[in-house]
Amino acid sequence: MRLRYSDLKDQQLRSLTSLSRRDFEALAEVFSRRWQHYQEHFTLEGSVRERKHKGRRNAVFASDHEMLLFVLYHYKLYPIQQALATTFGLWQSTVCFYLGLCERLLVEALDELDALPERDGTRLQQVVASEVRLLIDATERRVQRSGDATVQREHYSGKKKRTRLRISSSRPLGGASST
User: Fold this and answer.
1) Are 40 and 65 in contact (CB under 8 A)?
2) Is-above-0.70 flag for pTM?
3) What residues does each domain of the chain span?
4) Longest dimension (CA), the chain
5) Per-residue tens of pLDDT for the chain, all 179 residues
């Protein structure tokens, strides 16, 4: 069994990627442009292309939509590479290679759509001030515990066994995502 975009119903697509078909199609349009640009200027391995790109008969993915589904499925479910290979009918080494490539293309596409998480605090304040409702998602990341007592107090509350740093991102509820 090979997972194909064309075989998915709307509910299945949402379950596997967290995107509606409309949102997926909008992202796929930009993702496809980024992929075409990459193919025109670089070889599959990332070297600068010397000759004009011609389509491949033995392409790994049948379409750009399947490439996007591949990387979004990975982000949503985060399966081990062997399971991802089995799901998409690939070899594990091919999965490893294409994950790196597709992740770079996805970041470029999200950047073009201005949909990457905001990293600049001043810009984040401007975006938050303009929104009525905001969804905030936070996660904690382990940090090295400092030997200095004053620095240690900043990061360690004494409530948990491990020292962690809280990282959060936010996006407006409802309309288009601007962060």
Assistant:
1) no
2) no
3) 5-112, 121-172
4) 62
5) 789 999 999 999 999 999 999 999 999 999 999 999 999 899 888 888 888 877 777 789 989 999 999 999 999 999 999 999 999 999 999 999 999 999 999 999 999 998 887 777 777 777 777 776 766 666 666 667 777 878 777 766 666 555 455 555 555 555 554 44
